[in-house]
Amino acid sequence: MPNLYRLPNLYRVEHKGENKSFYPEEVSSMVLVKMKEIAEAYLGQKVSNAVITVPAYFNDSQRQATKDAGVIAGLNVLRIINEPTAAAIAYGLDKGKSSELPRKCPFIN
């Protein structure tokens, strides 16, 4: 199991004697890359655009960091929206007619 050391605005990971340092945006982008791969496998096509959800309590700098992580992950971040807003949109899509919107614009949370 790798050791994780928290430095100001930097995560240092020691794994098998090797040290690596990551900014929080880089760690988030690693998660987004994996989510992008899962979405592409499910959809059967390349994913380039994304709407990313964040907790409602995120401030502007946290939202910008999340957007930066999306760009690092190779995504064109169309919008950053609050999780409650995403839930309301998903609820509305579920209640409406069947459409292609969810397949063309998946939410990445």
From TrEMBL:
The record's section on Pfam families has:
HSP70
Checking SUPFAM superfamilies in the record gives: Actin-like ATPase domain
Molecular function in Gene Ontology: ATP binding; ATP-dependent protein folding chaperone
Q: Which domain of life does the protein's organism represent?
A: Eukaryota
Whether Oxidoreductase counts among this entry's keywords is no
InterPro entries recorded for this chain?
A: ATPase_NBD, Hsp_70_fam
Tell me yes or no: is Signal among this UniProt entry's keywords.
Answer: no
Record keywords, A-Z: ATP-binding, Nucleotide-binding
Similarity annotation: Belongs to the heat shock protein 70 family.
Q: What is this protein called?
A: Heat shock protein 70
Origin organism of this chain? Gadus morhua (Atlantic cod)
Q: What is the lineage of its organism?
A: Eukaryota, Metazoa, Chordata, Craniata, Vertebrata
